[in-house]
Automatic annotation (TrEMBL), chain A:
Pfam families: CCG
Domain Cysteine-rich as annotated: residue spans: 3-84, 129-224
Full protein name: Fe-S oxidoreductase
InterPro entries (UniProt xref): Cys_rich_dom (IPR004017)
GO-annotated cellular components: cytosol
Taxonomic superkingdom: Bacteria
GO molecular function, one term: oxidoreductase activity
From TrEMBL, chain B:
Superkingdom of source: Bacteria
Keywords: 4Fe-4S, Electron transport, Iron, Iron-sulfur, Metal-binding, Repeat, Transport
Stretches assigned to coiled coil: none
GO molecular function: 4 iron, 4 sulfur cluster binding; metal ion binding
4Fe-4S ferredoxin-type domain sequence ranges: 295-316, 345-373
Stated name of the protein: 4Fe-4S ferredoxin
GO terms of biological process kind: lactate metabolic process
InterPro entries (UniProt xref): 4Fe4S_Fe-S-bd, 4Fe4S_Fe_S_CS, FTHF_cligase-like_sf, Helical_ferredxn, LUD_dom, LutB/LldF, LutB_C, NagB/RpiA_transferase-like
Length: 249, 460
């Protein structure tokens, strides 16, 4: 089983450690992982700004690069949603390559939970952790049941974190409120974006969380920026860093 | 600022008052939580939503048939049905009926449609007095403001604001903020208006094709007062309000109040199937730019909306920017898609006033695909060349750069080298919107790709 690792462009540049944790995590479960060197960006920032036409080449490149893998795994719910939901416009309905990519791409937690079905994770993390359910993963990929829906409660991120020794997962007041990142929304609607992020941070602090985690580094980056600016007593970590245990390079 | 509407600017104003913004957010979140709780007491909730979606979509696909059926059955009940193509014609028809009956004073209840058609100023310009009788709507009417929410029109106001308004307009005691006192005063004032009125205008929640009657849902009972006390009742509705059968109504009444306010049912679900004794009942059915939706694959489901307001209550942006920031008769997610479709140029910022979190789509009782409609609007605005040149060019540049991996890697490498050594003022300045209130992430020494190469070689 060959797994193609997709690291979103900004994580490659800004979060090499979280990216490396993802790789190690997959290796920890004996996956045959490969990182295709030619990858760049899935095109989400462009598409979310209305410019999906302009990123057609990126969609075509993405499928070309990743079509040969049995699975494609990425540490980000929102880029996976992009490929799954919004690439359709660029391909014929029966395009074999795209349909393969679309059905074999997974967010890393989803992959561990649904495909490998991990039951044991050798990891220790004695901290109070708050899970930020980022919207694209949470509602888009259904990594957890959204609080609005009347369906059985489940949360793949929490199920995985519960396998970590010593961890205490804290309930938040608003379990799946948006953090206000929203890609270019963070810029075009700066004031609302910042207000939302601050509220999300406050919920974590009010709930005595030490570490905020999640499956989307972009949301975490937004909140980390706010935390650092105001020196708030809260740390941010991508979920793969917790699941991978101590990551040694 | 031009007449073009600008959500970010209006949102900025609302956010600036931190205390009020959070109060607004909390008030609406309270309603959403109530909705969550009560919707979970119904095991078949998600199935009900599916039925509602199917009934609505079926009706819209056969709208002509059901409207004619409705007209025929309504006529048989002694109701006069009028069709209007737009707001102007709607107002003219209403005015004609009123003046034919020598009406001077009108009481009105529950109608976003008349708000959309600007009926009040029209009738007032013809010398008539129009009084909105829903408490919230009365408050905003006295303040000369549009409603900021379709179910809770005065949710942007605190009781102090209401007290001040009532003091100024109705002479209530200054500084008396007691809600009971204020409600009583409003009720007394309204009671007289009801007694004096020559006609009552109401909205319509559902028009039932196979019975020819209309249903209005209220919590204050004022639609009943307005429709029963005067001898003349005019009900105004958009073409989309029709449902096929009486049986279908139960699906919607079970969903509507629970979605709107978290109540099991509205206090009054009133059926009007004919004029009061010796009186007249008219129904004005308006198109006003609705038919284009029927032809649009991407946006037609927006017409299925039953105006419960749940998408507003759950929307994290609406909660923090207030209804007036949308500058459209219907605010929130549904207003953003309706407004943008009707006038993309004027409302071009609305589909971007959204993080695409998807919560609205999940709460919507008729399962309108709100967040994907807003995503699609953005693509359409780009196609129509309505988004800013700056945005378009920077996205074109980004796409170009991203299709050249070597160049992109090189750019990243340079940035990681240069940025950490730049003086602060070069990074945090007015061109860097991100950095105004947020720190930038620390620049790592190496990218993941570089680390990967070092450790595993170039093994692709
Ligand atoms: S779009 Fe859906 S949730 Fe929003 S007001 Fe209409 S019916 Fe209610």
């Amino acid at each position: 089983m060959k797994v193609g690792l997709f690291i979103p462009c900004f994580m490659n540049e800004l979060y090499p450690n979280s990216s490396m944790a993802t790789l190690k995590l997959l290796k920890k479960f004996n996956m045959d992982v490969e990182y295709p060197m030619d990858q760049t960006c899935c095109g989400q920032p462009m598409a979310n700004s209305g410019c999906s036409k302009d990123m057609k080449t990126l969609a075509l490149r993405f499928v070309e690069i990743f079509k040969k893998y049995d699975y494609i795994v990425a540490p980000t719910g929102s880029c996976v949603t992009m490929v799954k939901d919004h690439y359709e416009a660029f391909f014929d309905e029966d395009d074999k390559d795209y349909n393969k990519v679309k059905t074999s791409i997974y967010e890393v937690c989803e992959f561990l939970h649904d495909i490998i079905k991990v039951e044991k994770i050798d990891s220790y993390f004695p901290h109070k952790v708050g899970v930020h359910n980022s919207c694209h993963g949470h509602r888009g990929l259904k990594l957890g049941s959204a609080s609005e829906l009347n369906i059985p409660k489940n949360n793949k991120l929490k199920n995985l974190l519960n396998l970590v020794e010593g961890i205490e997962i804290v309930e938040l007041n608003r379990e799946d409120e948006c953090c206000g990142f929203g890609g270019t929304f963070a810029i075009t609607e700066e004031d609302i974006s910042v207000a939302m992020g601050k509220d999300r941070i406050k919920d974590h602090i009010d709930s005595n969380v030490e570490i905020m985690t999640g499956a989307d580094m972009s949301c975490l980056m937004h909140m980390q920026g706010l935390i650092n600016r105001e020196n708030k007593p809260l740390k941010v970590m991508h979920i793969t860093e917790i699941l991978a245990g101590k990551v040694q390079l | 600022m031009s007449i073009l509407h600008n959500h970010p600017a209006k949102a900025k104003e609302f956010v600036a008052n931190d205390e009020r913004m959070h109060w607004h957010d909390q008030a609406l979140w309270f309603v959403r939580e109530k909705r969550d709780r009560i919707s979970k007491t119904i095991p078949e909730w998600e199935t009900l939503r599916k039925y509602a979606d199917q009934i609505k979509s079926h009706t819209m696909a056969n709208l002509d048939k059901y409207l004619l059926e409705f007209e025929k059955n309504a006529n048989a009940k002694g109701i006069k049905v009028h069709f209007a193509k737009d707001a102007q014609e709607h107002n003219e028809i209403v005015h004609r009926i009123l003046s034919e009956n020598n009406v001077k004073k009108v009481v009105k209840s529950k109608s976003m449609l008349t708000e959309e058609c600007h009926l009040n100023p029209y009738l007032e310009s013809k010398g008539m007095e129009v009084v909105d009788t829903d408490l919230g709507e009365r408050i905003v009417q006295l303040r000369n403001e549009p409603p900021s929410h379709i179910v809770l029109p005065a949710i942007h106001l605190k009781k102090q604001d209401v007290s001040d308004t009532f003091h100024k307009e109705m002479g209530t005691e200054k500084g008396n903020y007691d809600p009971t006192y204020l409600t009583r005063a409003a009720r007394e004032d309204l009671r007289q208006k009801f007694l004096d009125a020559d006609a009552g205008i109401t909205g319509v929640n559902f028009a039932i094709a196979n019975t020819g009657g209309v249903v209005v849902c209220t919590n204050e009972g004022n639609a009943d007062m307005g429709a029963s006390l005067p001898k003349l009742h005019i009900a105004c509705m958009g073409i989309e309000k029709v449902i096929p059968r009486l049986q279908d109504l139960s699906v919607f009444t079970r969903l509507l109040a629970r979605s709107a306010t978290g109540q099991a049912i509205t206090s009054y679900t009133s059926h009007f199937h004919g004029p009061v004794e010796g009186g007249q009942m008219h129904i004005v059915i308006v198109d006003n730019k609705r038919t284009p939706f029927l032809q649009s694959e991407s946006y037609k489901k927006a017409l299925n909306c039953i105006r419960c307001g749940a998408c507003m209550n759950t929307c994290p942006i609406y909660r923090r920017s207030g209804g007036h920031s949308y500058d459209y008769v219907i605010p929130g997610p549904i207003g953003s898609t309706l407004g943008t479709f009707r006038d993309p140029k004027k409302h071009k910022t609305l589909s971007f006033a959204c993080t695409l979190c998807g919560s609205c789509t999940n709460v919507c009782p008729v399962k309108i695909d709100l967040d994907s409609q807003l995503y699609t609007h953005r693509q359409d605005l780009r196609e129509m060349n309505i988004i800013s040149n700056q945005k378009r060019l920077s996205m074109q540049f980004a796409s170009w750069l991203m299709s050249k991996p070597a160049l992109f890697d090189f750019a990243g490498k340079i940035a990681r080298k240069v940025v950490p050594n730049l003086p602060k003022f070069m990074i945090y300045n007015r061109f860097n919107v991100w950095g105004k209130q947020r720190d930038l992430p620390d620049m790592p020494k190496k990218s993941f790709k570089e680390l990967y190469k070092e450790e595993f070689g170039n093994d692709k």
